[in-house]
Amino acid sequence: MRQEQRAPFTRALRRARESAYAPGEYVEQESFMVASEIRDLAVRAGIGPGVAVLDLCCGVAGPGRFIARELGCDYLGVDASASALEIARERAAGLPCRFEVGSVPPLPAGPFDVVLLLETLLAFPDKEPLLQAVAAALPAGGRFACTLEEGAPLTSAEHEQMPDGDTVWLTPLEEFEALLQGVGLEVRWREDHAASHRAMADALGAAFAADADAISAVVGRPALDVLVDSHRLWSAWMASGRVRKFAFVAGKA
To answer: Which of 7, 16, 28, 59 could serve as a FRET partner for 79 with CA atoms 20 to 30 Å apart?
Structure first.
C-alpha cells in the first residue's frame, strides 16, 4: 500500500502494531520482521562501532535506528519518501544517523562496509542493476544484508489479486543467488523466515481489523481494507509455500 504522506499512517497504525508484536519485538518497523531477527541479521553482517552502514529504502528507519542504538555504527538511511525521512530524523535524535532523500539505484557515494535492504527487494522488477550498484558501493570484504520474498513471478491473476501488485516482483531462490554471484557477492548465510513472517502477517492483519474504527478515522476505510486484505494474502501465500521469506548475508570477495 503506497503511503505518500507517511505521518497519518504511522500515527494511525502504531497502536495496532504495538499490540501485534511480542514484547520487545516492535521497533517501529513497517514489515513482518521482528526486532530479534533484525538484530541477528545485523550482527551476522558484522555491524558494530565504526562500521559504515547504508540502509536502502529505509522508510521511517525503525530497524536502522534500532541497529544504530543497539550496535553502534555510522548509519546513512536513504528513501524516496521525504515524509518518511522527516519522521526518521525526528526520532533519531541523539543517534549516529543521517538520512538522504533519493531513489535507488544509483546509491550514495561509498564505500560502505555494509549495505542493508530489508523487506523491499520485491519492489524492484529488475534486480540486477540494483545488485550491481550494491556491489560497487562495497569494498573488498564488504557485506550485503537483505531479505528476499522468494517464489516464481506472479501470474497476471495474482498481480490483480494483490493490492499494489505492480510493486510485488518475486524471484526464485536459485535465480537470486545467481544474480548475487554474477555481481561478485558470495552468500555467507541464509535463513528461512517464512513461518515467523506468516505468524506476523496474521497478527498484524488481526490487530488492524480489531482497531478498524480508529484506523479508518485517520486514513479511511478503503485504505484499511487494502491493508488487511494484503496481510491475509501474504499469510495465505506463505502458508501454501507460494512465497518463502529468506534473510541473507552476502560478502564481496
So the answer is: 16
